[in-house]
Amino acid sequence: MFNQLVAKALPIVPKPIVRAVSSRYIAGETIQDAVNTTRKLNAHNAKATIDVLGEFVSSRSQAEQEAQMSSNVLTAIGETNIQSGLSVKLTSLGLDIEDEFCYKNVAALVKKAHEIKRFVRLDMENSPYTTKTIDLYKRLRSEGLSNTGVVIQAYMRRSEDDINDLSKLGASVRLCKGIYIEPSNIAFQGRDEVQENYKKLLRLMFDKDMYVGIATHDDVLLDFAQEEIAKRGVKPDRYEFQMLLGVREQKRDALIKAGHHMRIYVPFGHDWYGYSVRRLKENPEVAGHIVRAMFTGGR
Known about the structure:
With 299 residues, this protein is α/β, with parallel strands linked by helices. The chain has a domain of 173 residues: TIM Barrel, CATH 3.20.20.220. It has 12 helices and 8 strands. An 8-stranded parallel β-barrel has the order 1-2-3-4-5-6-7-8, surrounded by 7 helices. The protein is globular, with a radius of gyration of 19 Å.
């Protein structure tokens, strides 16, 4: 309860304190920071997907800047040969401005990634963008751009239909629980029902032989996934586990040691504060460290 109260109070906590506590979840502010972090992960047999922090962009010039930054990330990946793909949020690339403008920005990135044999994941945002994101993904695939995939959120009631639809394309899907606050008519609300739907969707994707990124830190779901993989004899090239930078590192290492492929989400950029607050709210136990940091100067 105490940690949850702290999490709710985060917006009034001084930014330097939030930054000190959340630094483990963010590679830094520069591309070089992201490259350095990815190198360390690679050394521990984990791949990465690098994300430029930012979303809900409202001007073309800013969206173009975000697109250029993501392009620069791909350049760095190619030059350093680190084992990483790219993750993008479509609202940072102009989805709120114009669909065609956003599509051109994304397609350019996917084409560039193809040239260096890398993958671009289209992150899923809140419900107003679900259909647009999936439609944009389908358009990329229809134009022969296959080095891209989407994200499905297990708490969304529509997700089973979306997976059945995406399976026709042999889509690569990252399956996560979902973090945005959504109304009960479109999203499951309780922890147990979200877990049960996650299990149902994971079974469905295995049934349809889709490539799945099992994105969760939940022991119930991690145990379930490992049991299904073993029971079905799912080959290592048909799935990977995915986790956030700095979260449950011991569990991450245990999964790698057990022979599973692992990919870590590596965010970086100047928009670290909004990301930090969201992550700390999702992890109330971590938010408790805020209080200690306030009395230790952030050490």
